[in-house]
Amino acid sequence: MRNPLQEQLLKAGLVKKDKIAKVVRDQAKQRQGKAPVVADEAQVDARKLQAERAERDRAIAAERNADARKKEIRAQVRQIVEATRVKRDGEIAYRFTDGEKITSLLVSEPLRAQLAAGVLAIAKLDDRYELVPRAAADKIHMRVADVVVSDHGRTDSAPLPADDDDDYYKQFVVPDDLIW
Q1: Residue 178 binned pLDDT confidence (cut-offs 50, 70, 90)
Q2: Does 174 fall in a domain?
Q3: What's the confidence (pLDDT) of residue 2?
Q4: How far is residue 86's CA from residue 129's CA, in Å, rounded to a whole number?
Q5: Is residue 107 part of a domain?
Q6: Structural domain count, the chain
């Protein structure tokens, strides 16, 4: 079962008869599936390269998804703040801390009382501060904690450890409406 090319090579004297017979036997074994599978180095390298590219692509896609999710959350927070902000007007300076900086807003007496009671909270949107109701502040805090700057109604902050001096200072009553 030699092919015409093998016959021509044999007649020309370029190959020997036993070499052609060995090639024919190998081809027959491969057709029947009995020959051992020889893995090409090129195929192995191609598979490794493909796996590395797929892993890198998955990492890049995960990073893009995380960035998109952050942008989506920021857009939700912006929408909540803009939809629920309370109009502020007044001449009383309400001071609060934003990180390590003390900032003040001009509010009216009823707004100051609501801020002190925790009914309203202060949210930082870009470079401006907005007053938002308690429900909106909770929604914002669930999404991004650093947007709500001042929130007196928040109860999840850990209590300070008790000191011996606390018992002594309890006898001095500080009014709730203290303006600083």
Answers
A1: low
A2: no
A3: 62
A4: 11
A5: yes
A6: 1
